[in-house]
Amino acid sequence: MTDPLELPASARRPRQTFELEETGFNEVPKRFRRFYRRWRGAGDKLGPNEALCPVCKVVIRSTKELRAGDRVYCMPCMSRLELVEEEGMLIAKVIY
Ligand SMILES: [Zn+2]
Question: Residue 2: its pLDDT value, please?
Answer without folding.
Answer: 67
